[in-house]
Amino acid sequence: MRLRWMAVCGVAAVVAGAAITAAQGPKEIKVAIADAKGADVGTATFKTVKSGVQVKIALKGLAAGPHGVHIHQKPLCEGPAFTTAGGHFNPDGKKHGYQNAMGHHNGDMPDNLNVGADGKGSATFVLTSISLDPAAPNSLFLNGGTSIVVHEKADDEMTDPSGASGSRIACGVIKGQ
Ligand SMILES: [Cu+2]
Ligand SMILES: [Zn+2]
After folding, report:
1. 87 pLDDT exceeds 90?
2. Is residue 9 part of a domain?
3. Which of 92, 101, 98 is nearest to 112 (CA)?
4. pLDDT for residue 19 is more than 60
């Protein structure tokens, strides 16, 4: 009887160990976003939640209307074109957009961010295919980090590779502590 109890206990310990590994990495990070002139246009806050990573974006000083926002693969925001950020973060090797049958990129957002007449806009999304755990294959800290990019136009959520969202107008580097 006593032996059996100890065996059960051993299994419980292994499961607890796996849970600790999965929870590694920062719980929350805040990323500063700047436009092509280097002016502050807001922040993105990434927080580990039960189903993935919550991304809370708060922007200011932008043209009114819908803007595509994505996580791009490199931690380099060199204005004014921000091409240094590379393509969309895509370790799973899929196509662009939530409305694309072969989508979506890990770094795609399920919707656009709407900016009002006052130049301000905010949105909160939960992305299930990214992680803040540096050891995860879909970690935002993969190969030194990633970036968050705001585009000139709306993302149609289906046209590869970038949803026809036009120029990159703002960028923020996502790096580990
Ligand atoms: Cu983009
Ligand atoms: Zn994409």
Report:
1. yes
2. no
3. 98
4. no
Ligand 1 center to 49 CA (angstroms): 23
For residue 98, being part of any structural domain is answered with yes
In a domain, 142, yes or no: yes
Say how many Å lie between the CA of residue 71 and the centre of ligand 1.
Answer: 6
Taking the C-alpha atoms of residue 64 and residue 67, their distance in angstroms, rounded to an integer, is 9
Whole-prediction pTM: 0.86
Average pLDDT value over all residues in the chain: 90
Q: Report how far ligand 1's centroid is from the alpha carbon of 119 (Å).
A: 19
Report the C-alpha gap between 140 and 78 in whole angstroms: 19
Question: 71 CA distance to ligand 2 centroid (A)?
Answer: 8
Q: How many CB atoms lie within 10 A of CB 41?
A: 23
Rounded mean pLDDT, 118-123: 98
